[in-house]
Amino acid sequence: MSARVLVIPRAECPSLPEADAWARTTWTWPRNWSWQRRSWVEDDERFLQIIPYALLRNAHGEIWCYARNGGDSRLRDRLSAGVGGHIEDIDAAESIERMADRALRRELQEELLWQWDTTIPEPVAWIYEGLSAIGRVHIGLLYLLSWPEDTPPKAAEGQGLSGIGFIPAGRIADDARFELWSRLAAGFSIRNSV
Question: What is this structure's pTM?
Answer without folding.
Answer: 0.92
